[in-house]
Amino acid sequence: MPRPQQFACLLCVCAALWLPLTALALEASSDDSDRAGEDWGSGLRDGLRQLSEGLSRTGDQLSENLSAAGNRLAENLGESLDRTAGNLRAILDGSGSGLVAALGRLNAGGSELLQRLSGRFVEDVPGSTHFEMAVPHQGLGRRVVVIRPEHDTPGDAPVLLLLHYANGNPAHMANLTRVGRLAAQHGLWVLLPEAVNGQWREDPNGLDGIDDVGFLDAVVSTALRDFPLDPARVHVAGMSKGAFMATRLACQGQTRIAGMGLVAGSLRRQQALQCPNEAPRRVMAIHGTDDRIVPYDGRFGLFSAARNFAHWEQGNACVPDAASEESLPIRRDDGTRVRLLRNTECAEDGAVALATVEGGGHTWPGSDPIGGALLGNVSANIDATEALWTFLDGQP
Fold first, then answer.
1. What is the CATH number of the domain that holds 381?
2. What is the pTM of this model?
3. Looking at per-residue confidence, does 280 or 95 come out higher?
């Protein structure tokens, strides 16, 4: 439709044409009446002709202006629609990829939350990574967490089979000990199997039918078959019930165990009778004097820490009275002191050590406190994870 400005211009044109006609009429009124009619009629015709021509020109100009304005409007509208469509596509595309990414993050976060709530989340240490595998045994596919170096290392890697405490699980043990440090710093692979219902069948006289010795043998053999691992450097360690299970595996299993680490654990008298000590191995125990669960001085059916040390000295054919003892530096005044007793004058590949944590409880030294007063002090004056590996791997 015409714009208001164009109507105004048309009226101005009409007015401009009409004023001369009015002037002619006034001028004609003063002349001779005979000529006035003729002149007036002639002027009227001329004026009407000019008016018609002016209106025609104005209409043509108006039509051209309207056509040009319509074309520009159509072009601008088309460009705007194209830009809007492009922007909408970009927004939808961006939103789609963003939505996918957001859903991925949400799914990962939800999975991590569920694992944390269930106590199955493994905190990766920089330089290490982990995965899970199922090892079939007795008709069950039993869970094993594997922690390995983030990058491949040259040659076959050493192995540490790490066994959790009663009612624990692989994630608990991995996070408590921060064992991923060993994978990152020393290139070893850590195997963390899970006990049925959180309980290892570590008693050699147990009769419930669950064969944990056979299961752990299967874990090691599966790992040696599938991964680049050194069968001559397979070690086992555990805490509490995990320590008793480590001893049973070393005594009764088919796996050649090169070294054994025991934290807050000891040796059952019945197990000592079923431990042939066919090959020397490195054995280190770490035991708190204030341990109320597995007493440092032993109890009926359990060896004391000193007797356990003597048992493995004999089994490794160590030179009697060759053991030496030292006090470790105090890192923190937390009410604990550490005495380290060692005998390395033993058969080839054999050695024995006992770290006595004075004032220490039923805990993993060097870890974060768990269990409160019931389990006792966690010593910061020895890092059990580092100390065990240093000794088991034969480092000075």
1. 3.40.50.1820
2. 0.72
3. 280
